[in-house]
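From the methods appendix. Each design record in this collection lists the tokenized structure first, followed by the designed amino acid sequence. Records were kept in a plain field format so they could be parsed without special tools. The example shown here is representative of the layout used throughout.

RECORD:
FOLD TOKENS (357 positions):
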């Protein structure tokens, strides 16, 4: 499948401005390992966040020299690293949006979550850019017949920027990766869940406990690549498929005990894969384990179905039903001894939004 389209070339090159807010997401069943061009080794499923967003606005003008020039401002400050990352992304998708070469870009981006908290921003950042490019196509070429077509292409394009970004295009929960029996599931783009999610998951909470905000030593892309020679790689793929199938059932039934088991099993497996790669690496910190033990204790004491998941980093994502938010407040309070950072009180959100400029 591809979206290459040589017809997307301006006859009269316009100037303009377009912006999107796009959220981060937290995977419950993790994407870890890929092949070819951003094809996942296993299906994954994530909750879309509400507060952890990237807000991006792009100004474009006709280019003066037949190849695009790009400036990137993050938090109002020129950022050459992000400019290079975006140029690499734009080069990868030039056959999808050939009009990119007719434009010069000024990109203004900021995150709504605190700066340098170690929260992955590639999902929100790349999905915002994908939406902006599809929006430019929509404004000037009028190619999308339906909203579904627009979002599907945005998800396809976001995946080429960063795998997990393709899931940020949809609100609530989103799945990515072909799975027999799930209509429209694809390795090339994410989609909404094809059924009503159990109401217990409405506004499901994700409180992020920041334990270390330094830049991680092994990038996710490097981590994915190390899965190719991981001796447990094949069994990980079968496990992820089983967890994915079970999670689909849990999201229908609302069985929170089972949800807790799947979420924690996935988080610990993700980090076990890092520890068993060659070379091996550890992204957890001592406090990650201490907080996990405290969560287990608290769950045993109270029977509240609060659990954790981890991203590719040391920070804890505390997952619990909206209706338990007041009780879990005391657990969050007790975790403050492990960190000086404020927790990010996030929850399941509605997905990206166009910015009115
Ligand atoms: C996920 N992660 O499913 C997993 C779980 C981190 C842990 O996807 O190389 O930034 O850009 O496709 O998407 C992080 O990897 O990697 C990730 P690339 P990405 O959310």
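DESIGN:
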């Amino acid at each position: 499948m591809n979206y290459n389209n040589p017809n997307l070339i301006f006859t009269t090159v316009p100037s303009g401005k377009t912006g999107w807010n796009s959220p981060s997401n937290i995977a419950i069943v993790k994407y870890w390992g890929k092949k070819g061009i951003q094809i996942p080794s296993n299906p994954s499923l994530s909750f879309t966040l509400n507060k952890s967003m990237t807000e991006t606005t792009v100004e474009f003008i006709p280019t003066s020299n037949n190849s695009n020039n790009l400036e990137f401002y993050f938090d109002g400050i020129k950022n050459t690293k992000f400019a290079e990352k975006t140029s690499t992304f734009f080069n990868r998708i030039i056959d999808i949006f050939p009009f990119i070469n007719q434009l010069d870009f000024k990109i203004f981006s900021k995150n709504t979550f605190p700066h340098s908290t170690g929260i992955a921003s590639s999902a929100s950042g790349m999905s915002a850019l994908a939406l902006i490019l599809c929006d430019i196509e929509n404004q000037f070429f009028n190619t999308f017949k339906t909203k579904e077509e627009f979002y599907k292409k945005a998800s396809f394009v976001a995946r080429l920027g960063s795998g997990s970004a393709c899931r940020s295009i949809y609100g609530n929960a989103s799945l990515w990766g072909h799975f027999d029996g799930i209509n429209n599931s694809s390795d090339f783009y994410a989609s909404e869940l094809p059924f009503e999610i159990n109401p217990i998951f409405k506004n499901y909470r994700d409180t992020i406990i920041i334990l270390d905000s330094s830049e991680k030593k092994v990038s996710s892309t490097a981590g994915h690549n190390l899965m190719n020679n991981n001796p447990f790689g094949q069994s990980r793929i079968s496990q992820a498929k089983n967890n994915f199938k079970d999670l689909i059932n849990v999201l229908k039934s609302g069985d929170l005990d089972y949800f807790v088991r799947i979420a924690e099993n996935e988080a610990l497996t993700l980090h076990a894969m890092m520890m068993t790669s060659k070379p091996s690496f550890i992204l957890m910190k001592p406090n990650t384990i201490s907080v996990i033990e405290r969560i287990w204790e608290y769950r045993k004491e109270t029977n509240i179905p609060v659990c954790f998941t981890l991203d590719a980093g040391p920070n804890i994502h505390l997952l619990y039903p909206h209706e338990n938010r007041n009780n879990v407040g005391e657990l969050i309070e007790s975790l403050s001894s492990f960190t000086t950072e404020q927790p990010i009180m996030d929850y399941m959100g509605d997905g990206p939004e166009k910015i009115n400029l």
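APPENDIX NOTE: The chain has a mean pLDDT of 95.
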